Each structure stands twice: as structure tokens, then as C-alpha cells.
Amino acid sequence: MTNDEFFMKYYLTRIVAIAVLLLTSACGSSVIRGASSHRGHSTEQTHPEGSSTTQAKLTASTKNLAQNQPISLAIDIQDSQGKAVTNFDTFQEKTMHLIVVRDDLHSFNHLHPEYKGNGRFEVNTTFPTAGEYKIFSDYKPSGQKEQVSLMTLNVPGSVPLPKDLENFNTTKIFNDTQVKLKLSEPTPKTGKEVTLTFDVKQTANNQPVKGLQPYLGEKGHLVILKSSYPLSTSDYIHAHALKETGDGQIAFKTTFPQPGTYKLWIQFNRDRKVNTADFWVNVL
Ligand SMILES: [Cu+2]
Questions:
Q1: Residue 17 pLDDT > 60, yes or no?
Q2: Where are the domains of the chain?
Q3: Over the range 207-227, which residues count as b (16 or more CB within 10 Å of their CB) and which as e?
Q4: What percent of the chain has pLDDT over 70?
Q5: 171-283 matches 3-155 in CATH topology
Q6: What superfamily does domain 3-155 belong to in CATH?
Q7: Burial class (CB in 10 A: 0-12, 13-18, 19+), 129
Q8: Which DSSP string corresponds to 89-141?
Q9: Dist. CA 221 → ligand 1 center (Å)
């Protein structure tokens, strides 16, 4: 088989797979239902999917998804009977936090869909590469606990090879900012609380960055996902920053629910620009 033939066959396989997907989803539209469950990994394991109280329904503005193509996503939050959930509490300054990752955790996006009423949220975005994306929507129906619903969206096309192999560097440098991760335990253990401290310094003089501005009401935001296939809501941890930390320090306490490899994305606001640094951590 020549290269051209190989790629033609590859694309045809993809197209057929997507056609099947569209045909099997309701009414031929790209609507995918996501199961939901209470946030928090500890309750997660004791509550099977069946105990969901709300669900998220995803509708993409086009059936012809492609990488780097602007797309609008609508997310409808419904109760277990399919009736719209209409009232939401704000937390961390937003009514919904949307974490979009490619299933291999190579791509990360944190969005805030706008509430349009009648249970519907909308957001515009693009998907940087082809692949299977998992969308975690984090929201709080009024008077209820924070909920996490999971949706899936497939973006067809050829998947590029990773630019570099994942590394476990504890220092990340971008432009004039350096972020160093320190763990209270060199190798965290399942079920044992660990403190994660991120030191944010200026690359030029190695001095702590002073006066980090709040990002969504906190000094920083941390999303943690366990590398799994398929990803599920039990792999998702949204940690809250500790209040009392020094200049350029953002700290979190968390507990890893299972052994495995986790990816961490720390987001913070330096000079009105949100920076994202990612790290991998092994948990025994
Ligand atoms: Cu958010």
C-alpha cells in the first residue's frame, strides 16, 4: 500500500466511524448525553452512575467538526426526567466552569459558558487538534451540591504525534514566568492528604512574583485529572487554593483517590493575563 492509499483508507475509516456515530445519536444531530454525579472523588466511588440527579446534554453548532474551526457549544442541564434545571448558584464567580481535555490529556481548556436561561449554557471555542475530547461541566443547581457532568465530542482528522514525550519536570518556564511544583510528599500515596505548592517566580531574577491578582476569586485554580481511558467524572478533581500563602506562592491540599498518573493544570493571573502551567505526578 502506498502512503496515499494508506491515508485514504485511514480517512475513510474515520468518516465511516463518524457517520455511524451521527446516525446512532438522537435525530442525527451531534447530541451526546453525559452522566453526572456529585463532585468529589470520595463520594464518587460509593455512588454509581445511576444515582445522578442532573445530566448535561451537549449540542454542537455544526456536525462537521474540524480542528481549529470556531464552534459554538450549547449545554442543557436537565434533571433525571429530562426537564430543564433552571436555577444555578454562582461559585468561583461563574455559573458554570467547563474543562475541556483531549482524552490523552495533551490538550486543556478552561471555559465559562454563559447562562442563557431555561437550563441552557452557551460558549464559543475551537478544538486545537483532532481527537476525542472530554468535557467536564462543573455547576451548582441552586441549593444543591456542585455537580460534574461529563460529555464527549469527537473531532475527526489526523492526530499529530505528540511534540515531546511527557516529562515529570517539576519546573515549567514560559516567557518571564517560572513555576515550580513542590509536594509535601515526594511521591504521594492514595488516600493521604498532600499539599501541592506552586512557586511562581520571575525568570529574569528568580524572585517571587509579587501581587498575583485573583483569578475567579482565588489566588489560583488547580484542575487535576487522572490519566485513564475512558476518562470519567471520578478522574476529575477541582482543588481550592489555600488562603494564607507567601508572595508568588499558590498552595492546595488534596487527596488522590486512586493510584496512577495524574496531570495537573495550575492557572493564575499575572498582570491580568491567565497563565496555565501543567505537571505530571505519579501516585502510589
Ligand atoms: Cu472556571
A1: no
A2: 3-155, 171-283
A3: eebeebeebbebbbbbbbbbe
A4: 80
A5: yes
A6: Macroglobulin (MG2) domain (2.60.40.1930)
A7: middle
A8: --BTTBSEEEEEEETTS--EEEE-PEEEETTEEEEEE--SSSEEEEEEEEE-B
A9: 8
CA 243–ligand 1 middle distance (angstroms)? 18
pLDDT in tens, 27-79: 333 334 344 443 333 322 333 343 458 999 999 999 889 999 999 999 999 99
Choose the CATH number for 171-283 among 3.30.160.20, 2.60.40.10, 2.40.340.10, 2.60.40.1930. Answer: 2.60.40.1930
Q: How far is the CA of 267 from the centre of ligand 1 (A)?
A: 10
Instruction: Report pLDDT digits (tens) over 76-120.
Output: 999 999 999 999 999 999 999 999 999 999 899 999 999 999 999
Cα 99 from Cα 59, distance rounded (Å): 16
Q: What cell numbers appear for 36 in the block? A: 453526572
What's the pLDDT score for residue 241? 86
The alpha carbon of 97 and the centre of ligand 1 are apart by a number of angstroms equal to 4
